[in-house]
């Protein structure tokens, strides 16, 4: 058997799992399961541990290797699990040499030496980022991811991710353009730019280009690209070029996911965020003037330490103030070693109740946007034989169309979760 990769967490991890699979297989690793873990919450770490135990029961002869953010920040915890054969660091996982070393260690005739079980270096010492030109995305799949940035220079008080990812570093623009062009030539209709802190892109590169300049270069030099999408951004760092591209190039999809985290100014300060509530509202209004049909998503944390009911109400109000369509709700998770872990904590029951109310607000916001779309004609990227996505990332129920196609459909209704497109007016784009 070959190498199976089980992915937890973000879109960046999804991209990196493709690199891991390629590098591990090229190194000759066989009958192995790689867990690419996430550390953003305690629940994410627990899910990885549960998956490890389950997979070992199902495949007792398979070697289990753990990597990703949780492996970087809690390497010894995973190494102490009897089911785990090796722990590989977050930088090492992207390098063929680490998988060659893993193959050698796992093939040792007398078992795995305990001193060789952990292969995790200091992530803060990593200063450069090599591009990974993947040709491993299956042809015909609707979208492909391109990693343009990794790490984060900011230190939000709740976040463990900089200690799992290291400081911010970027892929040079030319290498990104080459990657996008190669993926488009393979037939991918949509490219998604991914990173840990996308709007910090380029600060470490010569000339310090920004994300807006990168998107402009991609769209200029890869004219065959049908759709370019940006994953989560920090709105306070959005540059003028990015706003201009949003305004004047329809191939950049009208959907932005914002790292807002809270709607209360005091909580934002205690989180060590760099924007205020009004900054978030003003940004959404500014972008909506440039692209009136744009859809916004946002990350919001429920129950951050010291959050009162009045403070939470301002986060709840932000859904309407910013006219959000998609909400990604995080019940606050206490991460050891972070400043927020030392602050007065909100009771678990209150955290869960606030998260429930935020999710309900998100569901209502999505339903309102779906209702507003009825009657509109949209270009829908077919993801599977059952679902596609509009330019605004709204899900559309379809039946039997080939994944990877972009079809023009008129929205005839919705079920509260997905739009319904009329097959009678579709045309291949």
TrEMBL record:
<dbReference type="InterPro" id="IPR006638">
    <property type="entry name" value="Elp3/MiaA/NifB-like_rSAM"/>
</dbReference>
<dbReference type="InterPro" id="IPR020612">
    <property type="entry name" value="Methylthiotransferase_CS"/>
</dbReference>
<dbReference type="GO" id="GO:0046872">
    <property type="term" value="F:metal ion binding"/>
</dbReference>
<dbReference type="InterPro" id="IPR023404">
    <property type="entry name" value="rSAM_horseshoe"/>
</dbReference>
<dbReference type="InterPro" id="IPR006467">
    <property type="entry name" value="MiaB-like_bact"/>
</dbReference>
<dbReference type="InterPro" id="IPR007197">
    <property type="entry name" value="rSAM"/>
</dbReference>
<feature type="domain" description="Radical SAM core">
    <location>
        <begin position="138"/>
        <end position="368"/>
    </location>
</feature>
<feature type="domain" description="MTTase N-terminal">
    <location>
        <begin position="1"/>
        <end position="104"/>
    </location>
</feature>
<dbReference type="InterPro" id="IPR058240">
    <property type="entry name" value="rSAM_sf"/>
</dbReference>
<dbReference type="InterPro" id="IPR013848">
    <property type="entry name" value="Methylthiotransferase_N"/>
</dbReference>
<dbReference type="InterPro" id="IPR005839">
    <property type="entry name" value="Methylthiotransferase"/>
</dbReference>
<keyword id="KW-0411">Iron-sulfur</keyword>
<protein>
    <submittedName>
        <fullName>tRNA (N(6)-L-threonylcarbamoyladenosine(37)-C(2))-methylthiotransferase MtaB</fullName>
    </submittedName>
</protein>
<dbReference type="GO" id="GO:0035598">
    <property type="term" value="F:tRNA (N(6)-L-threonylcarbamoyladenosine(37)-C(2))-methylthiotransferase activity"/>
</dbReference>
<keyword id="KW-0408">Iron</keyword>
<keyword id="KW-0949">S-adenosyl-L-methionine</keyword>
<dbReference type="InterPro" id="IPR038135">
    <property type="entry name" value="Methylthiotransferase_N_sf"/>
</dbReference>
<dbReference type="Pfam" id="PF00919">
    <property type="entry name" value="UPF0004"/>
</dbReference>
<dbReference type="GO" id="GO:0051539">
    <property type="term" value="F:4 iron, 4 sulfur cluster binding"/>
</dbReference>
<keyword id="KW-0004">4Fe-4S</keyword>
<dbReference type="Pfam" id="PF04055">
    <property type="entry name" value="Radical_SAM"/>
</dbReference>
<keyword id="KW-0479">Metal-binding</keyword>
<keyword id="KW-0808">Transferase</keyword>
């Amino acid at each position: 058997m070959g190498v199976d990769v089980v992915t937890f967490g973000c879109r960046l991890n999804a991209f990196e799992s493709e690199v891991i699979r390629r590098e591990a297989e090229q190194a000759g690793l066989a009958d192995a399961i790689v867990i690419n873990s996430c550390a953003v919450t305690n629940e994410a770490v627990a899910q990885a541990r549960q998956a490890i135990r389950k997979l070992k029961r199902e495949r007792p002869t398979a070697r289990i290797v753990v990597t990703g953010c949780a492996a970087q920040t809690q390497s010894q915890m995973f190494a102490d699990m009897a089911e785990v054969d090796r722990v590989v660091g977050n930088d090492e996982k992207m390098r063929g040499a680490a998988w060659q070393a893993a193959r050698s260690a796992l093939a040792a005739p007398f078992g795995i030496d305990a001193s060789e079980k952990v292969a995790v270096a200091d992530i803060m010492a990593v200063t450069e980022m090599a591009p990974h030109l993947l040709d491993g995305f299956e042809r015909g799949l609707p979208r492909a991811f391109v990693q343009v940035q990794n790490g984060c220079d900011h230190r939000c008080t709740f976040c463990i991710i900089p200690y799992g990812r290291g400081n911010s570093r970027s892929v040079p623009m030319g290498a990104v353009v080459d990657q996008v062009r190669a993926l488009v030539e393979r037939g991918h209709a949509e490219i998604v730019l991914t990173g840990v802190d996308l709007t910090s892109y380029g600060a470490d590169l010569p000339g310090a280009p920004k994300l807006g300049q990168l998107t402009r270069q991609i769209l200029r030099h890869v004219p065959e690209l049908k759709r370019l999408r940006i994953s989560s951004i920090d709105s306070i760092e959005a540059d003028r070029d990015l706003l201009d591209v949003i305004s004047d190039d329809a191939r950049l999809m009208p959907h932005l996911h914002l790292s807002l985290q809270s709607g209360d100014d005091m909580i934002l300060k205690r989180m060590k965020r760099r924007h205020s509530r009004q900054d978030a509202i003003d940004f959404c209004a500014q972008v909506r003037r440039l692209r009136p049909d744009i859809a916004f998503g946002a990350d919001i944390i429920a129950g951050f330490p010291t959050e009162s009911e009045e403070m939470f109400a301002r986060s709840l109000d932000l859904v309407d103030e910013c006219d959000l369509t998609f909400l990604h709700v995080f019940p606050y998770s206490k991460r050891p070693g972070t400043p927020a872990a030392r602050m007065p904590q909100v009771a678990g029951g209150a955290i869960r109740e606030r998260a429930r109310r935020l999710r309900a607000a998100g569901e209502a916001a999505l339903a309102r946007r779906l209702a507003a779309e009825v009657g509109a004609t949209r270009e829908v990227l077919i993801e599977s034989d059952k679902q596609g996505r509009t330019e605004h990332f709204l899900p559309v129920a379809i039946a039997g169309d080939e994944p990877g196609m972009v079809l023009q459909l008129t929205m005839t209704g919705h079920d509260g979760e997905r739009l319904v497109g009329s097959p009678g007016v579709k045309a291949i784009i």
